[in-house]
Specification:
The protein contains 14 helices and twelve strands. With 406 residues, it is an alpha/beta fold.
Amino acid sequence: MSLQTLFQEQAKRLRTISLDKKRYLYDQINWTSKSIGILGQRGLGKTTMMLQYIKENYEGSDKALYISLDNPYFQSVSLYDFAMEFESYGGEILFIDEVHKYDDWSSHVKTIYDASALRVVFSGSSILQINKQKGDLSRRSLIYTLENLSFREYLSLSGAMEYQPISLEDLLENHGAIATNISAQIKPLKYFKEYLECGAYPFVLEDKDNFHQRLVQVINLILETDLPYINRIEMAQIGKLKKLLYLLAINVPFIPNITDLSSATQISRPKVYEYLNHLEQAKIINTLRSKEKGYNVLSKPEKLLMQNTNLSFALSSSVDIGSMREAFFVNQIKNALAAKNRFIDESIYSSKKGDFLVDDKYTFEIGGKNKGFEQIKDISNSYVASDDIEIGYKNKIPLWLFGFLY
């Protein structure tokens, strides 16, 4: 396959790419860096972001090229040799998608970095594998993670309204004025219900009717392809892993009983801990521990939730409303604060008083519109995130508003 053919394929792709709407991460990436890695689940828009950058900065130029390593052609050629050939013809920046489909891809990326002046942007849908290679690339590559759509982004991409992200501090201090402003433009509770069911992935805009079916396919690809390949899980264990995930989906939120989960799935206790860790790395679940326990994969989580609410609706015909509220809150907080790149992630812990401790400073209780302050009345910096209200008062804040953090 010639460079000319690849440029022709790229030109066809660029004709379908719009620059009108971009994911939140687009403007956070330092695109001038020599090596950039973008992590994220399938279907979140990584490919679109790379093509948008090419269209915005290199359309009609032969200095930037997008390739996808799921193309069978690249299984028979050296990625490093291809990159050197591209550079010899004047190439300046190479976008490599689906890197996890190529054996020993990280060695090739490192060699390209060391032996050429090419800038490289690589991306892959297998978060698990890229995480395993992340340490080897840390000295050379800036690694970014693209999370699922926030509620704010869903409103933007669906054409409902445009609004800038709000910092957590600004939200806590000025939520009344902010919610009043937004509620004057749209009916947030109507859109919020849509978002909880099917708004966390951009492909909802392509086919809403089959959204949950497509999401199940994404989950199956992770369980049947990524996990066995990356973590050497035997295929015979995949059925048990699916059963574990289903049990979690229909029972969350709850304090996991590892012994019961082990018995119900015929998975050993150590393997249950291991599989929970894999599912969290794959962005399928969120596990919450107390500040005292910290992040220890061998300690029992205090609480377990689906990573986002769309997963609950895809996996279960009956979604617990309390689970849904907590999963949304945890998802938006973790995704928003992850960008701070702290040495120790203290974005959110499970809390004995109240539901969650956020940013090691704020205590939150999550509930419906009648939720009161009884459980957190004596705690400083405490708030109620309340569902089914448009505008809050004092320390009672609409739950939907936390979807505007990124």
